Amino acid sequence: MFAATRRLLGKAKRPLTKPRRGIPRFEGGSSLLPILFPLGRYGVGAKVNRVTWNSPNCYWLITKIKYNKRAIRDDGSIHRGKVWGSLYWRDKLVGTPDRKVPGHCKPRWQLLEEPTDPTRQPLEKGRLHRKYFLQV
User: Per the domain annotation, does 93 fall within a domain?
Assistant: First the structure.
């Protein structure tokens, strides 16, 4: 410990305890991959946003998804992978298009608009190993 910290701790009037965790303000939502998996083209072209975002004009437009086939669950869904998209804030593109979506494994994502292409065909391209990954 630093000397200054020791001095402050010695002068503290209240007992040092951990702060209590607050009640979560936003309920519901799921992580991004289980939301996108049942959609056409596995979710490419869908508009999603976080539950905590208030405006419907703020969303991610999903451009590419890479599912890990080794993480298949009993119901057939895949919950591991990577997601790329373009961030639109107040209907304007922010930053570079087609970048990794941060926090895609965290909960509290919601689907705003489904993709327009109803087919469920993955695009096989690049030198991706077919055994382990499914790239859309």
Answer: yes
| pLDDT tens-digit series, residues 15-27 | 556 555 544 555 5
Distance CA 3, CA 5 (A): 5
The overall longest dimension of the chain from CA atoms, in Å, is 67
Strands 81-89 and 109-113: unpaired
Task: Please choose, from the candidates 50, 48, 52, 51, the residue with its C-alpha nearest in 3D space to the C-alpha of residue 60.
Answer: 48
Question: Has this prediction a pTM greater than 0.85?
Answer: no
Which domain does 68 fall in, by range?
25-135
> CB within 8 A of 125, min separation 6: which ones?
135
Give the integer Cα–Cα distance in Å for 81 and 89: 25
Residue 82 inside a domain? The answer is yes
* CA proximity to 83, closest of 126, 29, 32, 34: 32
Please count the other Cβ atoms lying within 10 Å of the Cβ belonging to residue 49. 20
The strand pairing partners of 47, in sequence order, are 61, 113
Written as one letter, the residue type at 98 is D
